[in-house]
Amino acid sequence: MAKFKHNKKRNSAFLYEVLIQELTKAVLSKDVDQQNQIVSLVKESFSRNTVMYHELKLYRAVTHTKDVNVSTAEKILSEAKLRHSQLDKKSLIAEQNMVARKIRKFLSNEAFSNFVPSYKDLASVAQIFNNKSSIKAKVLLENELVEKMSSGKSEEKMVPMDNIIFKSFVKRFNEEYGGKLLQEQKTLLNKFISSFNDNGVELKVYLNEEVGRLKKELKDSFSREEFQSDDQMLEGANKVLSTLDSYHSAKPNKEMVEEVIKIQGLVKEICSDAN
Hints:
mainly alpha, 2 domains
């Protein structure tokens, strides 16, 4: 039986994740031009009137579903397969080709080797959506995905090739950008990108909760001896609090997201010192 070969450039969800990774690197390196280029590409490629946007939603319907009963998982997977079969494949391929060309032109061909944590699941869903896969392979993969969707735990098992890509990416990433983003910073970046497709609803909700958390962490730190004995440190923390307060009525934008990312790092450092 011929083995299914996953074509990354024919997977809208993978292309989306590649752009997220590249945006992360651009933010860390403070490359504003690169950030704007990537944000523009995401807006253009995954706007609501594109086929890639609809394919991305179908991938997410499967890979983002957790902790439902088996029957519900099977129905979601079945409906996703049906809707995917109705997509305009000619337009989809044309859009994917255009995005792949722009990634090579404005970023680099190495971007396609970025480590994507959910790669194995994305490749499995691609195989299920592909009519060229064997019946046996599709059924086995569907059983695996249904099991994951009906479980609250999502464990990523890397295939050997992914491990090599991961080590290479982490090494290059750390050398160039001096470390990894905090989990809360990654979440914020993802919400920011997703905001192009949902009018910023999820971003606003997350920012509201995250700003509240950051303010509480900062205020709690005021009682520490270091703050009480250092007027300059206390003044700086109060300025950060004022900045966070100003976000209450402001419309989220790229500048705000960048500022919050910096504040997340600052608060993490303060809390780490306290512990």
